[in-house]
Amino acid sequence: MRVDLILELLDIPGQLVNVLSPISGFGANLVTVIHRRDDKNDDGMIPVKITLEGEQKNLIQCIDKLKEMEITILEINGVVSKEKLRTILIGHVIDTDIRNTADRINKLKGTYIVNLEIKLSDEGGSSAMLVIESDFGMKDIVFKKIREIANEKSLLIINEV
Amino acid sequence: MRICLIGFGAVGQGVVKIISLKKKHVKNKFNIELKVVGVSDSSGSAINQEGLDEELLLDIKSKTNKIYNYPKYGDNSLQGIELLDNVDYDCLVEATPTNISTGEPAKSLTLKAFNDKKDVVTSNKGHLALFFNEMISKAKENNVEFKFEASVGGAMPIINFSKKTLPSSEIESIIGILNGTTNFILSRMTSEGSSYKDTLEESKVLGIAETDPSQDVEGIDAACKTVILANSVLGIDCVYDDIEIEGITNITSQAIELAKKEGYFIKLIAEISKDKLKVAPRLVKKNSPYAIEGTLNMATLKTDLAGDVTVVGKGAGSIETASAILTDIINIKKTIRE
Fold first, then answer.
1. Residue B329 in contact with residue B35, Cβ under 8 Å?
2. Can you give the pLDDT at residue B336?
3. CATH number reported for the structural domain that contains residue A106 in this entry
4. ipTM, 2 decimals?
């Protein structure tokens, strides 16, 4: 059987080889690789489409290995598996225990904060940008959790449309 | 068509100006003869059944700020609702300032005109945001036309557009930028890296923000428009108090910088659907239809058949808003003929 994957990789030399080398070890064949350099995003990541062929159990092992290597799998057989969400929090983001805020978001199933940047304001308080990667379909749950935390800590929340 | 205009501020003067500019065009193209027979401001009124001179009205207002100084036909004893009993007209153009506490004087003026079997065109949001259903039912009861395209998005076509151009599609939601002042402030903060406070001051100097900008920056104006669109386009029975509102007063330049770095802008977005009635600052992608700048307004209508349809236009300004009023006046006459 075959499986199509779209991975998100950093556009640096050697990155693709590192990702593909474990595949043969699981008895799967690499059928195609399409490197979409023109679609590089603002974080320097590019989508790479690969097609693998092999026994079902071998293909599952390959996918598990990629996940273990913390490679982002955007799609499996055309089904979106991960999405990136962005949100800004404004207020006393640090004083209201930013660690606690991050931990509570990270506890959600298949959800991780992959980037957190904070800027202090001249008038007190701070603004934080959270880039969150979550399993597809988790968006509403993630935003609900952020809203709950923001209300509790009196933070202004700015979510994506 | 004999027009009685109440409210002679920026929008009212814009209406008179474009009637002066376009009356020949309207006559030639639609066979509608526009005549301003009564005008009222806070000082008094001017009435002439044969028609007032538009340029003279504007000149008197600009020089004396009081319309009762209009030669021969000026009257300082009649204003507002009293004018309606003293002039014979076909259509009331109601352009008084929005009052979100009581909806007055727009509500009383409009109901009085309906009872007198007159059509009404308005740019006012207060009475619509507070008493939408009551206003619509009274218009129907009296079998008169009631149009309010100018109350949402100035020159951006949306209410008439959704009804006349997209009747085959069901509109599921509307997401848009419905306030030009806040869009200007947020756009400037993004391009200049300036603080909210400094940008608001700059907007006041430029005449984009009012001396008391609270209706705009606290999201009240956008919330009123949200109620109007929810009721008139999506058929959601709601009033102002049903809207969840967060303005832009707490937006920091640091937040805007962080958004920009990720390829996003912060915009004051109105979201209108059966599940959500909300006005709040949101992140929008740099190259998306929401990334409009300056005082522009936009709205994306999500439809079942036509997909996403986006409209953009100037959301404020005397002539732009007046253009929507004139369109409504022309449409009333066309509807009556049809």
1. no
2. 58
3. 3.30.70.260
4. 0.84
